[in-house]
Design a protein that fits this description.
By secondary structure, this protein is an alpha/beta fold. It folds into 2 domains: about 120 residues, 3-Layer(aba) Sandwich (Rossmann fold), CATH 3.40.50.2300; about 80 residues, Arc Repressor Mutant, subunit A, CATH 1.10.10.10. It contains 8 helices and 14 strands. The longest helix has 15 residues.
Length: about 210
Amino acid sequence: MGRILIVEDDTILGESLKLFLEAHGYDVDVARSYDEAADLTFENKYDIYVIDVNLLDGSGINLLEDLRVAEDKTPAIFISAIRDVGTIAKTFEIGAEDYIKKPFEPEELLVRIKARLGKTGKVSKELRYKDIIIKDGRVFKNNKEIELGSVQRNILEKLIENTGNVVPKEDLMDLLQNPSDLALRVNISKLKKKLGIDIKSVRGLGYILE
């Protein structure tokens, strides 16, 4: 199943949602603050974020904004008692997938999570290339997890899905937040170094993983 990070400063609600989602097969972590959430997203890879708008030390909106700047494209669902249209609109403007108004039934959150993870295909997706495995959005080499940013992971997935075939540069550019030839070359170089794989550049066409 998927891995979820709940960012909620209400301890009782956070733990209740954790127990509920774990009972349905999900792997769940809970953070109570901006700083704690930032640390967890740096240390771990998640399939979806569930974020409260108001946190102990800041704003859930600012948290997602900063994650997006860091090229973290993990789907996010906001939960909040705030019903102001401007606030709701802001969450979608910065890239949220959904917004649930408190109070809500845990079953409603479960339905929304299933819908979002079903669209990304991350729950059951598994890719293999030699000694590399991508499973549930996490990358392993020789059974050891390798920390990759979401952009590099998406590029790797695209290359593995097309092993033996040239992936057009334009297709890989679409995976970048700020597309440029330099940004693509840097990400390809980092993948080669971190994973020890040979990604070849085909001049004028794109890249290939053989």
